[in-house]
Amino acid sequence: MFDIxxxxxxxxxxxxxxxxxxxxxxxxxxxxxxxxxxxxxxxNRTIAISRSSQxxxxxxxxWQNLNENYGFVDYIYTFExxxxxxxxxxxxxxxxxxxxxxxxxxxxxxxxxxxxxxQNFYENFEVASVEQNNDFAxxxxxxxxxxxxxxxxxxDGKNAHLANLLEVKRLGASYSQKAIxxxxxxxxxxxxxxxxxxxxxxxxxxxxxxxxxESGFVWSLKNDIANYLLHLWQTEPEMFxxxxxxxxxxxxxxxxxxxxxxxxxxxxxxxxxxxxxTKRSIGKILFVGDGLNAxxxxxxxxxxxxxxxxxxxxxxxxxxxxxxxxxxxxQYLSAGRISGFAAHLKLNLSTHFLVRLYSNSCQxxxxxxxxxxxxxxxxxxxRKNAATAASWVG
Length: 394
Known about the structure:
Elements: E1 2-7, H1 11-21, E2 27-30, E3 46-49, H2 51-59, H3 62-65, E4 71-73, E5 75-80, E6 85-90, E7 100-104, H4 105-113, E8 121-122, E9 127-132, E10 137-141, E11 146-154, H5 161-165, E12 170-185, E13 193-198, E14 204-208, E15 214-222, H6 223-235, H7 237-251, E16 263-277, E17 281-282, E18 285-287, E19 293-294, H8 302-322, H9 330-338, H10 341-358, H11 363-378, H12 380-391
Parallel strand pairs: 1-2, 1-11, 2-8, 5-13, 11-18
Antiparallel strand pairs: 3-7, 4-7, 5-6, 9-10, 10-11, 12-15, 12-16, 13-14, 14-15, 16-19, 17-18
Helix pairs in contact: 1-4, 1-8, 6-7, 8-9
């Protein structure tokens, strides 16, 4: 019997484990993979961390475990492919300190995994069924293993096996885009500048890492173009590099990538979509992370949104345990279930609107959005609201 059973040991699962175990709770992690796969060192994605998220990670001791292996975002600018920068945010313009941080996914996984008690890690555990009563939930594997817990946190990613098993309806839509992610060294220092270029094919972003000549890249493209570029990477990598440098020439702030050896992690590809479950929980089972709500990476807030949910649940359980209350009772679990709904809705709508706005090549709409963004860029109050909202997501 555990206080909390966590299904999935990705970023969200490991964060849930650290948050719950720091409260003195008995916690276990269940995953279909083996213990040797708990940290995916080949994961070449970069994670944007808001100021609020960084504060929570520090509270849990995770941030310190990164050993300063992260980049700072001191300046952000975004622009359309054919225009000058239209949105700019500078460090200390609206509040003191960095605008945010950029961390390699594999480094964040390592920082979190160091807290896991491997005796409570159940590997190669594929969930076959989940039953629950008023006191606990019972998880059974396809091999007949049984785990009982007061509550279950489903952190099993976008495929969300547990949600599918419980027949929770999912809504959403595909953007017909894929994100190509990789990390590379470039000729000019990034100067802690995060840059995003918008095109009708999708946004292209460079994210500053600790090394001033190294950045993480998220290249979002229509499916056919993304497939073509990945094919080039596999068959004619020099042509892939040529296309990549064409994009970098428009950014103008980090120079070029001189050789294929400067791409330190091979490009990976992920389909982009918006999707969310119609239920945030079923009884003692709470859905967390991409399995609950997946969004486009255009605003870089997916992990911060999930972290905000985990922080709400953490604070709710912390308050209950201080008062000697059973946090797994419905009346006490409710705050952890619904407190992040407004934040999810806001991010879903704003991100979806942004993607659809820029993915449209209609000329009148293009003129209207350019004018609207110029107005937004010239209004300090609007930009302050946007910077503050992004800084405190999570």
